[in-house]
Amino acid sequence: VNRTVNAIARGQNRVLLVMATGTGNVAVEQPYVAAADYIIFAYPNWHDSPNAITKGYMERVFSKQFAYRDTDKGLEGLLKGKCTFTIMTQAVGQSRGDVGDGIGKTDAIWDSYLNAYKVVDDDTAGFWGTNNLGRFVNDLTPGNMDKDYEARITKLRADLRAHLDKKIDLK
Questions:
Q1: Angle at CA 26, nearest 5°, toward 66 and 22?
Q2: Which DSSP helix (H) or strand (E) runs through 74?
Q3: What is the pLDDT of residues 131-142, one digit of tens each?
Q4: How far is CA 42 from CA 6, 47, 53, 58, 74, in A?
Protein backbone atom coordinates (compact mmCIF):
# COMPACT_ATOMS: atom_id res chain seq x y z
CA VAL A 1 0.00 0.00 0.00
CA ASN A 2 2.80 2.44 0.87
CA ARG A 3 4.53 1.79 -2.46
CA THR A 4 1.26 2.46 -4.25
CA VAL A 5 0.65 5.73 -2.40
CA ASN A 6 4.22 6.84 -3.10
CA ALA A 7 3.87 5.99 -6.81
CA ILE A 8 0.66 8.00 -7.04
CA ALA A 9 2.32 10.93 -5.28
CA ARG A 10 5.09 10.86 -7.91
CA GLY A 11 2.44 11.04 -10.65
CA GLN A 12 2.88 7.45 -11.71
CA ASN A 13 0.14 4.94 -12.38
CA ARG A 14 -2.81 5.27 -10.05
CA VAL A 15 -4.21 2.24 -8.22
CA LEU A 16 -7.56 1.91 -6.49
CA LEU A 17 -7.56 -0.87 -3.90
CA VAL A 18 -11.13 -1.99 -3.22
CA MET A 19 -11.38 -3.88 0.06
CA ALA A 20 -15.11 -4.54 0.16
CA THR A 21 -16.69 -1.57 1.87
CA GLY A 22 -15.55 1.67 0.25
CA THR A 23 -17.40 4.73 1.49
CA GLY A 24 -20.82 3.33 0.63
CA ASN A 25 -21.45 6.45 -1.48
CA VAL A 26 -21.47 5.81 -5.23
CA ALA A 27 -20.99 9.52 -6.00
CA VAL A 28 -17.77 9.44 -3.94
CA GLU A 29 -16.48 6.09 -5.25
CA GLN A 30 -16.99 6.56 -9.00
CA PRO A 31 -14.46 9.44 -9.29
CA TYR A 32 -11.88 7.19 -7.60
CA VAL A 33 -12.56 4.51 -10.22
CA ALA A 34 -12.45 7.09 -13.02
CA ALA A 35 -9.05 8.34 -11.83
CA ALA A 36 -7.49 4.89 -11.37
CA ASP A 37 -5.31 3.14 -13.92
CA TYR A 38 -5.51 -0.13 -11.97
CA ILE A 39 -8.45 -1.37 -9.90
CA ILE A 40 -7.57 -4.13 -7.45
CA PHE A 41 -10.31 -6.03 -5.66
CA ALA A 42 -9.26 -7.75 -2.42
CA TYR A 43 -11.70 -10.05 -0.66
CA PRO A 44 -12.12 -13.44 0.98
CA ASN A 45 -13.54 -16.32 -1.03
CA TRP A 46 -17.20 -16.79 -0.17
CA HIS A 47 -18.61 -19.95 -1.77
CA ASP A 48 -16.36 -19.46 -4.80
CA SER A 49 -17.33 -15.84 -5.42
CA PRO A 50 -16.79 -12.37 -3.98
CA ASN A 51 -18.49 -11.83 -0.64
CA ALA A 52 -21.80 -9.95 -0.67
CA ILE A 53 -20.21 -6.63 0.35
CA THR A 54 -17.74 -6.74 -2.55
CA LYS A 55 -20.37 -7.89 -5.03
CA GLY A 56 -22.71 -5.12 -3.86
CA TYR A 57 -19.91 -2.57 -4.29
CA MET A 58 -19.29 -3.78 -7.83
CA GLU A 59 -22.97 -3.60 -8.71
CA ARG A 60 -23.47 -0.11 -7.25
CA VAL A 61 -20.24 1.57 -8.30
CA PHE A 62 -19.69 -0.13 -11.67
CA SER A 63 -23.21 0.71 -12.77
CA LYS A 64 -24.84 1.19 -16.15
CA GLN A 65 -23.93 4.53 -17.77
CA PHE A 66 -20.74 4.64 -15.67
CA ALA A 67 -18.98 1.32 -16.37
CA TYR A 68 -21.02 0.19 -19.39
CA ARG A 69 -23.88 1.21 -21.63
CA ASP A 70 -26.27 -0.22 -24.22
CA THR A 71 -25.49 0.35 -27.88
CA ASP A 72 -27.04 -0.88 -31.10
CA LYS A 73 -24.29 -3.55 -31.20
CA GLY A 74 -24.78 -4.66 -27.58
CA LEU A 75 -23.11 -3.62 -24.34
CA GLU A 76 -20.06 -1.34 -24.47
CA GLY A 77 -17.57 -1.10 -21.61
CA LEU A 78 -16.81 2.50 -20.67
CA LEU A 79 -13.68 1.98 -18.56
CA LYS A 80 -11.28 1.41 -21.45
CA GLY A 81 -7.59 1.79 -20.67
CA LYS A 82 -8.01 0.61 -17.08
CA CYS A 83 -6.90 -2.74 -15.69
CA THR A 84 -8.49 -4.94 -13.04
CA PHE A 85 -6.80 -7.43 -10.75
CA THR A 86 -8.09 -9.57 -7.87
CA ILE A 87 -6.51 -10.65 -4.60
CA MET A 88 -8.53 -13.40 -2.92
CA THR A 89 -8.02 -15.51 0.18
CA GLN A 90 -9.37 -18.98 0.84
CA ALA A 91 -8.59 -21.81 3.23
CA VAL A 92 -8.04 -25.12 1.49
CA GLY A 93 -4.24 -25.29 1.61
CA GLN A 94 -3.65 -25.92 -2.11
CA SER A 95 -1.28 -23.16 -3.20
CA ARG A 96 -0.67 -19.44 -3.61
CA GLY A 97 -0.66 -17.32 -6.75
CA ASP A 98 -2.38 -18.11 -10.04
CA VAL A 99 -2.60 -20.84 -12.69
CA GLY A 100 0.64 -22.82 -12.74
CA ASP A 101 1.62 -21.90 -9.18
CA GLY A 102 0.66 -25.22 -7.57
CA ILE A 103 2.80 -26.64 -4.79
CA GLY A 104 2.57 -30.29 -5.79
CA LYS A 105 -0.52 -31.29 -3.79
CA THR A 106 -3.31 -31.18 -6.36
CA ASP A 107 -1.94 -28.90 -9.07
CA ALA A 108 -4.42 -29.98 -11.76
CA ILE A 109 -7.34 -29.11 -9.46
CA TRP A 110 -5.69 -25.78 -8.54
CA ASP A 111 -5.19 -24.87 -12.20
CA SER A 112 -8.75 -25.90 -13.10
CA TYR A 113 -10.11 -23.79 -10.24
CA LEU A 114 -8.07 -20.73 -11.22
CA ASN A 115 -8.88 -21.14 -14.92
CA ALA A 116 -12.59 -21.02 -14.00
CA TYR A 117 -11.98 -17.72 -12.21
CA LYS A 118 -10.17 -16.42 -15.30
CA VAL A 119 -13.35 -16.95 -17.33
CA VAL A 120 -15.37 -14.92 -14.81
CA ASP A 121 -12.68 -12.21 -14.50
CA ASP A 122 -12.33 -11.87 -18.28
CA ASP A 123 -16.11 -11.65 -18.66
CA THR A 124 -16.39 -8.93 -16.00
CA ALA A 125 -13.47 -6.99 -17.50
CA GLY A 126 -15.05 -7.24 -20.94
CA PHE A 127 -18.36 -6.00 -19.57
CA TRP A 128 -16.66 -2.89 -18.13
CA GLY A 129 -14.16 -2.43 -20.96
CA THR A 130 -11.14 -3.04 -18.71
CA ASN A 131 -8.18 -5.39 -19.15
CA ASN A 132 -8.10 -8.31 -16.70
CA LEU A 133 -4.59 -8.80 -15.30
CA GLY A 134 -5.58 -11.94 -13.41
CA ARG A 135 -5.62 -12.72 -9.75
CA PHE A 136 -3.51 -13.73 -6.78
CA VAL A 137 -5.15 -16.34 -4.59
CA ASN A 138 -3.66 -16.97 -1.17
CA ASP A 139 -4.51 -20.41 0.10
CA LEU A 140 -1.57 -20.76 2.49
CA THR A 141 -2.25 -18.23 5.23
CA PRO A 142 -0.36 -18.90 8.45
CA GLY A 143 -2.38 -19.31 11.64
CA ASN A 144 -2.00 -16.57 14.23
CA MET A 145 -0.48 -19.04 16.70
CA ASP A 146 1.88 -20.76 14.25
CA LYS A 147 5.42 -20.88 15.62
CA ASP A 148 6.78 -19.87 12.21
CA TYR A 149 4.13 -17.16 11.71
CA GLU A 150 6.61 -14.34 11.04
CA ALA A 151 8.51 -16.31 8.39
CA ARG A 152 5.29 -17.47 6.71
CA ILE A 153 3.67 -14.01 6.66
CA THR A 154 6.92 -12.54 5.30
CA LYS A 155 6.85 -15.17 2.54
CA LEU A 156 3.22 -14.31 1.76
CA ARG A 157 4.09 -10.61 1.45
CA ALA A 158 7.05 -11.38 -0.80
CA ASP A 159 4.97 -13.67 -3.02
CA LEU A 160 2.23 -11.05 -3.38
CA ARG A 161 4.76 -8.28 -4.12
CA ALA A 162 6.47 -10.41 -6.76
CA HIS A 163 3.13 -11.29 -8.36
CA LEU A 164 1.99 -7.65 -8.39
CA ASP A 165 5.34 -6.45 -9.74
CA LYS A 166 4.85 -8.80 -12.74
CA LYS A 167 1.34 -7.47 -13.37
CA ILE A 168 1.41 -3.79 -12.40
CA ASP A 169 4.18 -1.30 -13.12
CA LEU A 170 4.49 1.04 -10.12
CA LYS A 171 8.20 1.66 -10.40
A1: 120
A2: strand 74-77
A3: 999 999 988 888
A4: 20, 15, 11, 12, 30
Task: Supply the pTM of this predicted model.
Answer: 0.84
DSSP-derived 3-state class of residue 150:
helix
Q: Is the dihedral of CA 27, 127, 108, 97 positive or negative?
A: negative
Total residue count of the chain as it appears in this document: 171
Taking only the tens place, the pLDDT of each residue in 62-90 is 999 999 999 999 999 999 999 999 999 87
* Residue pair 67/128 in contact by the 8 Å Cβ criterion: yes
Q: What is the DSSP code string of 7-36?
A: HHHTT---EEEE-S---S-HHHHHHHHHH-
